[in-house]
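Reading a protein record of the kind used here takes only a little practice. Each token is a code from a learned vocabulary of local backbone shapes. With that in mind, consider the following protein and its fold in token form:
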Amino acid sequence: YDTVFNDIILVDVKVCYPKKYDWVGIYEDGTDPQTLVDNYGSWIYTCGDRDCKGPPSTPESQVLFYAQNLTIASSNTYRAYLIQDYKKPYQASVVSDNFIISSRC
């Protein structure tokens, strides 16, 4: 896993046919990617904000999160999930490797 030191979490996203409301959520490691709900630490559309006017202009984009803004306090090991639908429970189409957040090197 990778370690993030109270910094920016940068997620590279590649979606061949991006849609307006594709989004990335940061969840605790171990969360079932096929039964996701609103217990994410943070989320953002793949366009880079929470107010998309349309899908990303290219299949590749980057989204960023600030580690100190995650709302999950019970864990320090996380994964990024790409979600391409709005029906609950959400189902991730891609799951990142796990990473930890640490306040020291």
Q: What stands out?
A: The chain has a mean pLDDT of 85. The first strand starts at residue 2 and ends at 5. The radius of gyration is 13 Å.
